[in-house]
Amino acid sequence: MSLTTTRTLNNGTKIPAIGLGVYKVEAGDEAYQSVKSALEIGYRHIDTASFYANEEDVGKAIKDSGIPREDIFVTTKVWNDEQGYEEAKAAIDRSLDRLGMEYVDLYLIHWPVPGKFTETWKALEEIYQSGKAKAIGVSNFLPHHLEELLQAAETKPMVNQIELHPQLQQDETRTFCQEHNILIEAWAPLGKASYFDHPVLQELAEKHQKTPAQIIVRWQYQSGIITIPKSVHKHRQEENVDIFDFELETEDMDKMTGMNEEKRLGKHPDEFDYGV
């Protein structure tokens, strides 16, 4: 078990179970150095998006690393104002151009824009068939969005990336995705470090001689959730993934489950301002 441990998507593509997220990582040197240090540590999964405005720096850091492109799993996403059939087909080309790549490993619809996402999905299916994306999926989709998508889809989403951390466990969405063989990936997996002082995290950190962040990442790993903790600091990047030398016992996992409050830190997908 290591940073190269993978999960298998429903099309057979392997995705590293743990990656680096770069949301709100500033374009330029911060994004470049963040990805560079993560790759040096051993990360092989980088998650960006056109909305983050740092694809260019992510691509440059990957290229400069000297690691073969096929050894790094890269995700990007189509933003809300790029949705629609023709718009999404143009958006992937812009992303690939900024990344300096011929393909991404995973291309996601960033949010379920009402009246647009099924059309966008048709474009993603073509993008997938063309080889510009090795896998396709969605982000921030709830079961009712997925039901609508699946009715129109020829290709099933391979991933649903959602806000998921101990206080927001999204059981209904996770169950739906499990039933449809769609893997769950967590954004804001550490709950933005906003409740590391929670008694359960403190207790388990003490018990296992680990940090609250490591307890959370280990819980997600053992739960079969793909996770992309973000940090721009190398020592934190190392800390976040130093989780392979211990295991949470059943009672520990139960305590983590008990932390759920369905408490969002980001927007609810049905309350997001899509401007439509």
Automatic annotation (TrEMBL):
Keywords of this entry: NADP, Oxidoreductase
Residues that hold substrate according to the record: 110
Site (Lowers pKa of active site Tyr) residue list: 77
Active site: 52
Every NADP-dependent oxidoreductase domain range: 18-260
GO molecular function: oxidoreductase activity, acting on the CH-OH group of donors, NAD or NADP as acceptor
Sequence similarity: Belongs to the aldo/keto reductase family.
Name by which UniProt lists this protein: Aldo/keto reductase
Protein species of origin: Gracilibacillus oryzae
